[in-house]
Amino acid sequence: MGKVYPQSSGMSTHRLLKVILVLVALVVAVALLTGGYESLASLFRSGNEEQSEPLPEGLLVLSVAAKSPDASTAWIFPAKYDFGKSTFDYVPADKLAASPEGFNLAYQHIFSGNGQYVVFVGATDIENVSSFSEIPMQIYRADVSNTQTEEEFTDRLLNAEIITEGTGVVKQNPSVSNLGEVLYVSRTSGDPRSLFSSEAEQWSIHYVSQDGREEELAKGVSPKWVGDDQFIFLKNDGLYLYSLATGEERNIWGMRGTATIGMSLDVSDDYQYVAWTAPGAGAVYIFRAFNWGIGTLTLSGTISAPAVSSTFSPDNRFLAVEAIVPGEVQGELQVLIGYYNIETFREVASPFVLATVDTNQTRLSDWRP
User: Fold this and answer.
1) Phi and psi for 106 in degrees, rounded to 5?
2) Which of 76, 103, 236, 285 has its Cα between 20 and 30 A from that of 259?
3) What are the distances in angstroms from CA 276 to CA 111, 263, 319, 330, 366?
4) What is the rounded average pLDDT of the residues 147-164?
5) Is the pLDDT of residue 337 over 80?
């Protein structure tokens, strides 16, 4: 059985604590006071425009955490990068219908492979929370099929259906199938300093059917659909395949060490490739799937980078990789997003940089046509 080196430590142990302090302190983004969300474009800087081969057109979906003057996280903004127009813009997907003018949270927007559904983590009216357990973090689902304009699409997101309930539970890593069925992970809030460095099996994987029925299926993190009735996920000892038809889970790729919530998976829209991002190992492992019926995988290659997240292009030819690298100012870090051919594992275009952002909160979510 194959082995993957896991990360030696998870994401920053202060990540969640910083968010809590931000919410309690009611820190409002400087961008809102000095030009609105449009000023987010100033965070973006492209590298050399020359490239060895053309990239597919599409939209790179991100959650961008801008910094306030005191270097704390001001807020997390849903954003997109348009390859065709080379523009980086805020998306008003956090103006949720339940509280359009409220202090809301909306991030980790993930599309189904066929583009008909979107799921995300959200919360409304959280300016008055006094503790993390009071944050009403929920999973939202929107049917965006047959939308004709960007305004219509955004309106569907703002009026998304809340498919979970309850407080005092952290909900992360949503994933939606082509049928609209949802997976996500949860854990009782606990100590925020250890939450996002915790072992995979300290989290629970939940399933929500199209009609709203919910059940806990397994222990693990980063569930990703590989068909209408199967998904992969990470447990402490490696990569697993779960069958909804049988209710069975099976290890299909082992690893050395222990998987944590800091690791992540992505699956190409045609279900033929898997990207396993392991921050502590400084690598993204690319697998080729030959038969999901029996869970046959082969390790195609490795991209060496201090990566924290990755996502496949809509045509299943490229992988966008988010890495955390030293910034121009000594002691500071910045986000670097590069693009790799998944057959050659070579970078195919100059990366772009997101400067003056919180590198613990800024993450890639998806890449759409």
Assistant:
1) -155, 115
2) 76
3) 18, 7, 11, 30, 15
4) 95
5) yes
Report the mean per-residue pLDDT for the chain: 83
Measured in degrees and rounded to the nearest 5, phi and psi for residue 42 equal -70, -15
CB 107 within 8 A of CB 121: yes
Phi and psi at residue 32, to the nearest 5°: -70, -30
Contact between 297 and 344 under an 8 Å Cβ cutoff? The reply is no
SS3 261: coil
Query: How far apart (Å, rounded) are the C-alpha atoms in residues 279 and 363?
Result: 13
Q: Which residue has the tokens 């949860």?
A: 186
CB 116 within 8 A of CB 178: yes
Averaged pLDDT for residues 337-341: 93
Assess contact for 301 and 288: CB atoms under 8 A: no
- Locate tokens 């996002």: which residue? 196
* Mean pLDDT confidence for 134-156: 92
Q: What is the pLDDT of residue 130?
A: 64
pLDDT one-digit tens code per residue, 156-212: 999 999 999 987 788 999 999 999 999 999 988 666 666 767 899 999 999 999 999
263: nearest Cα among 1, 3, 10, 5: 10
Taking CA atoms, 150 is separated from 101, 156, 233, 248, 297, in Å, by: 20, 10, 32, 41, 38
- Round to the nearest angstrom and report the end-to-end CA distance of the chain: 36
Judge whether 26 and 214 are in contact, CB under 8 Å.
no
Angle at 357 between CA 173 and CA 309, to 5 degrees: 35
- How does 129-155 read in b/e, with b if 16+ C-beta sit within 10 Å? beebeebbbbbbbbebeebeeeeeebe
**On the CB side of 159, how many CA atoms lie within 13 Å of its CA?**
8
Grouping H, G, I as helix, E, B as strand and the rest as coil, residue 274 is strand
For the chain, give the number of residues: 369
Mean pLDDT, to the nearest integer, of 112-138?
Answer: 83
Q: Coil, strand or helix: which one is 30?
A: helix
Q: How far apart are CA 332 and CA 355, in angstroms?
A: 10
pTM score: 0.86
Q: Using the Cα atoms of residue 324, residue 368, residue 99 and residue 167 in order, give the sign of their dihedral.
A: negative
Q: Residue 131: pLDDT band by 50, 70, 90 thresholds?
A: low
